[in-house]
Amino acid sequence: MKIMAFSDLHLSASRAAALVEASHEADLVIGAGDFCTMRKGLPEAMALLDGIPAPFVVVPGNAESADELRAAAPKNVTVLHGASTIVGGLRVFGLGYGVPVTPFGGWSCDLSEADAAAMLGACGGADLLVTHSPPKGVADVTSAGQSVGSVAIRDAIARLAPKLAVCGHIHDSWGTEGTIGATRVVNLGPMPNWFEVAA
């Protein structure tokens, strides 16, 4: 399956246009959160992505809540937050929000490591793991050199061994990747990222 994935659109009309254009070549499109900015402009952000024709699976970032994303998403968009879906024979599990809790204050949608671990624990298997936050130690380094990813997400990847794990959230690590066991982990950023994953 040909997958196009991105994260952290943050209401960029030019980046959205490039994503919509590229999406016509995809069998599945993944959006790994932060479509708007600080809980503002989510309907407008989703409207920018309205031309995506492929099945479109998203998780909420820390800039929008799961309920807000479900309310704003068009009917052809599947919102995952502690849940899974099957697309073309691929099991896709998604978990949104900032993990661990961010320093950004009241607007940010975050989860503690314990809450994230409980939600990820509901997943019995996945071919593709989509999280907004990166796992601890992979594609999670800030401009100050701090590793700020999630231990719960790292542990889930190690346990589930998905074929691919994608994330966003840490802008300074966009485009970086690593591995946990045999799983490729990629911090996406707001540009088309292409993957081939067999069902």
Automatic annotation (TrEMBL):
InterPro entries, alphabetized: Calcineurin-like_PHP_lpxH (IPR024654), Metallo-depent_PP-like (IPR029052), UPF0046_metallophosphoest (IPR051693)
Ranges of residues in domain Calcineurin-like phosphoesterase: 1-191
Domain of life: Bacteria
Family to which this protein belongs: Belongs to the metallophosphoesterase superfamily. YfcE family.
Name this protein carries in UniProt: Metallophosphoesterase family protein
Organismal lineage: Bacteria, Pseudomonadati, Pseudomonadota, Alphaproteobacteria, Rhodobacterales
